[in-house]
Design a protein that fits this description.
mainly alpha; Cytochrome p450; two-stranded antiparallel sheet; 8 helices; globular
């Protein structure tokens, strides 16, 4: 999926990045000077949600202004962690084959499927020209099966086998989920920590 992030395509995304950064700046300026605590982690999580929604999926979730936006709630739900999830994760590591057939995060799965399907349908399952991640997936889908080296199957000499994979709707939605989850958490955490350091070392 690296063609989504060539220097040329990143240039086309830059106006979207600037627009969201300006919204973040305005949001920070308009915070009342009450002397209270400003949760930089939450602000950056909402900014990251807006940013990924725009450059990845063509969505204007406006999480900075609306903390209850559906896209923001999805990010919260994905990373919600409690004791039951810890136990489930431990069991999943112990019995991976069993857990392949169980739906552990059914609500998250249903929400992601509904969101991505609605985007696909709006674009009639064809690239829209936005050059975002969704367009990349649709381009790959329209080219037919994807052929590449297997990470599991090897030849007798140890080299990887060539495998062909159909890019089904479920597989595309799984790619979207990974793109959102990986980009959201890492970006929000690193930028909020940067804010923390700037406060103590201006």
């Amino acid at each position: 999926m690296t063609p989504a992030f060539t220097s040329g395509k990143l240039k086309t995304m830059f106006p979207l990045i600037v627009e969201r950064a300006e919204r973040l700046q305005n949001n920070a300026i308009n915070v009342p000077p009450t002397g209270g605590v400003l949760d930089s982690r939450e602000i950056m999580a909402r900014y990251t949600t807006d940013f990924i929604g725009a450059v990845g999926f063509g969505l204007d979730s406006d999480s900075l202004s609306d903390e209850n936006s559906a896209f923001r709630k999805l990010g919260v739900e994905i990373f919600k962690f409690d004791v039951s999830q810890l136990i489930t994760q431990m069991l999943k590591e112990m019995f991976p084959e069993t857990f392949k057939h169980l739906k552990i995060m059914k609500k998250v799965e249903d929400d992601v499927f509904a969101l991505v399907r609605s985007i696909f349908q709006k674009r009639n399952y064809m690239p829209s020209g936005r050059n975002d991640f969704i367009d990349l997936l649709l381009e790959c889908k329209n080219k037919g099966n994807m052929v590449g080296e297997s990470i599991e199957i090897t030849k007798p000499d140890g080299t990887p086998e060539q495998v062909s994979v159909e890019l089904s709707e479920a597989l595309m939605i799984a790619q979207v989920f990974v793109f959102f989850a990986a980009g959201f958490e890492t970006s929000a955490s690193s930028t909020s920590y940067t804010f923390h350091e700037l406060v103590y070392h201006p």
